[in-house]
Amino acid sequence: MHDKTADEVQVHTPVDSERGTLKDVTNDALQLASLGHTEELERNFSLFALIGLGFVCSGSWSGVAQSLVAGVNSGGPAVLVYGAIVIPGMVLMIVLSLAEMASAYPTTAGPLEWTFRLAPPKHAAFLSWMTGWSNMLAWIVGASANVAVMTFQVVFLANLYNPSYESKPWHIFLIMEALLILNCLMNVFATRLLPLIDRIEFWWFLGSFFIVSITAVAAANPHQPAKFVFGTFINYTGWDNSFVVFMNGLVITAGNFCALDSISHLSEEMSNPSRTVPKAMFLTIGIGAITDLLVSICLMFSVGQDLDEFFSSGAPYLTIMLTSTGSKAAAACISTIQLVNNFNSTTSVIQVGSRIIWSFARDGGFIFPKFFAKVNKSLACPVPAVIMSWAIAALVSVLYLASTTAFNALMSCLVLLGYVAYSIPIVCLMLRGRVYDREGAFKLGKYGWAINGAAVFFMTLLGIFFCFPIYLPVTKDNMNYASVVSVGLLVIAWLLWIFVGKKSFTGPSLNGIHINAAPAETKEKI
């Protein structure tokens, strides 16, 4: 435990055994004890570091830049630009709902803990188990998706200076595995440096946004007219239904606003998480929405006149840089900047995934729970959980060798699994009349029903279209396997519940951990 001035508090009352809370207590460790957990991680993350982590994990403008072709094919510049306004509005409803629950129950477990506490007691363990596995798989698949993007950036650089180079699947695989190992080592041996890295990365990520946006607009000649950017609807998908095309375009933008729960999984590594988590979540989404909109506009003005070259590009935003500046060095520089962004993002994704594994194991929800719930005090890191987070992501990456179609199919379920993990606790909260057994610092109040309902509706709507194929006619290579893979993974989680979870998963203590409180006039260091 740390001896910090912020940890010095006056304890007025002991544990309220009926509700499992401590009254009039501000100390983070005691608040955590009231939720049934012992403080084991160091609280090193500031609000600024959390915003950096959340900003990078969500991707926002960087994701838009890297998915331009799919977005423009399915709706054109107009859907891409206006989607950057519509989607953040939808996402805000989800974030508000998550922030309220995170404020009430600020633990590393996040959605799985919220579900356990809000679900009907008879079904709490099962629903929490399904939430936890959905949440964990979404994050670990996210690590593989991130490292795949990094790998293609490396291949782009290789092709830029050696056009005769042809990448082989095993080249891609080895690069992916090497990058994942580096990300794992960062998490194990640099845990105490990660808050500093996240603060630096915030400015790096924001700075790279300005570099990409300004370079694209300043160097492009000629620019596309405003009508192309704000009024052009393009449909190269094969769909005849304009609404389907529009929604398919929206979900591409929505995919750049995933990882909404990232900050909540560091609740035990920050001070005053009941207030800090909601603040960091709102600022992350706000900054992400603004940068997403601006980069969409800037890149669409800078597409250039050769649209065929743009649509055939494997790295469209880099093609824009190359055609705008006419400089390989400029394109290589921007690609390297983005490579750093994706590397730091993957480090954070593995970190969050490890925290989910660790907290799940702490409550008996993961294999060999005692082992994976260990924390290395000298490194301030749950080392076994970090290694497992890396190992699963590395195994997923092996799929690329066997079948790129299978690998892409697994990547497609990332957002769907996240929505499952978010929806279950929100629905449980609504079914119990939006009544908490303890309230956090952030409350939705009278707007809660409308916001929760909108969040579930938007996730359902977007989730449906995340399952639609973007292109017709459907082939085995362009088929959207998100629904099949997601259901398959959930069935596996359900089978694990039947054979393992029923016996091992108990969930956190609803009565908290009893701590002998000091008299009101004395102070105690935790």
Automatic annotation (TrEMBL):
Keywords: Membrane, Transmembrane, Transmembrane helix, Transport. InterPro entries: AA/rel_permease1 (IPR002293). One of its GO terms (molecular function) is transmembrane transporter activity. One of its GO terms (cellular component) is membrane. It is a multi-pass membrane protein. The keyword Endoplasmic reticulum does not apply. The chain crosses the membrane at residues 45-64, 79-99, 136-158, 170-190, 202-221, 241-260, 280-303, 379-403, 409-431, 451-472, 478-500. Its main location: membrane. The keyword Ligase does not apply. This is Amino acid/polyamine transporter I.
